[in-house]
Amino acid sequence: MTDPQTLSGHYPHQTGLTAYGNGGFRFAELSHKGSLLCLPSGMHAWSITSAAELTLESLQPIIDQADQIDVLLIGLGTEIVPIDPAIRAALRDRKIIVEATQTGGAIRTYNVLLAEDRPVAAALIAVENAR
């Protein structure tokens, strides 16, 4: 049975990811199509499809929860590109460390930090092919 909370693009618990690829992610025995924000408030659908779309506005949910986050992992899809210095500065001002890498690497690090009960968040751009 599908949890009604997931129908709105929000799962109310932060949890580890068990798989990615085919344009989405698996977590908590659920499948999510599209990009994903993994935040202290839970797992949220995210409309971003490429690193070129990253803006302070697209990261606002992270900024809103900055007091609960020490590390933000940004999964940039299959490529690694520079993050806008204004985004890095805004997050640094909120004492958030930013690590940007390919989505697969971001997921692996996110799962480790989450298992260690660290205050971590992830902004993950969905990919078709997992590596």
Automatic annotation (TrEMBL):
Reading the lineage from the top rank, the first entry is Bacteria
- Give the protein name, as stated in the record: Mth938-like domain-containing protein
Organism of origin is Devosia aurantiaca
Could you read off the lineage of the organism from its UniProt record? Bacteria, Pseudomonadati, Pseudomonadota, Alphaproteobacteria, Hyphomicrobiales
